[in-house]
Amino acid sequence: MRNQGKINKFFGIGSGKSITKRMVEDGFDLVESKRILKFFYLFYFVEPKDLVVKLAKDNDQMFQVYFLREEIYIEENGLNVKRGYNNYDSDSFHFLALENDVPIGVMRLIKIPDKDWNFQGLYNIPVGSYLSFLDLRNFLEISRFGFLKNHRGNRRYLLKLLHVAHLYARVNNYDNFCGIMRIELLNYLQRIGIKFNFIGEKFVCMDTWNMAPFASSVEENILIIEKNLKI
Question: Nearest 5°: CA angle at 119, between 125 and 71?
């Protein structure tokens, strides 16, 4: 990875997927992995010098997640969303994005509980559409994805957070993402090459944001994101 400092090596014993999962959770930028013997892997990685993205694992980190969500969605954008914990948090993966050890961004990946998902009550999938034929329990829903106002224009930070989402989906055996996204962000991601298998009808969320539901492939887009990040 360019501009990320010295590449380090790490020998791991176990399944390559489980070791990769732990490295992603702890915020390392994985460059390459090679299997040496059946259960021995050599990993090349760098410790990020700009943005570190880590899985929230304890109560203190979850407090930071809730605090940032309130700052981003309620204080800065004026959305009428619930403060603190909500019903989807217990069955989700939560990530913190940190700059110089200071949390500046968040992301939640929801493990969808049933095949007939309605995007947290905000959008019902049209009968006969692409998503209506799929079991969404094989998807992760990206939600509560954002940065504090002073960091929102940073293209690299946006792509790094998306990259972690895709790596983590891969090591947890999820093949696709779905969610609802602001139209401006959806259009921007399409311009830089991100592919969407489904884009639904636009709607206004909470009388504030123009949004649309989407679905996308993990494997197809992880390569596009890495190309944009020059990994």
Answer: 150
* Mean pLDDT, all residues of the chain: 85
> What is d(CA 138, CA 110) in angstroms, rounded to the nearest whole number?
11
Q: What are the residues whose beta carbons fall under 8 Å from the beta carbon of 220, sequence distance 6 or more?
A: 195
CB of 95 within 8 A of CB of 53? Answer: yes
CA-closest candidate to residue 147, choices 159, 163, 137: 159
**pLDDT tens digits for range 113-134:** 887 788 877 788 888 888 888 8
Residue whose token pair is 């989407």? 214
103 near 183, Cβ under 8 Å?
no
pTM for this entry? 0.83
**Structure confidence by residue, pLDDT tens digits, 150-193:** 999 899 999 999 999 999 999 899 999 999 999 999 999 999 99
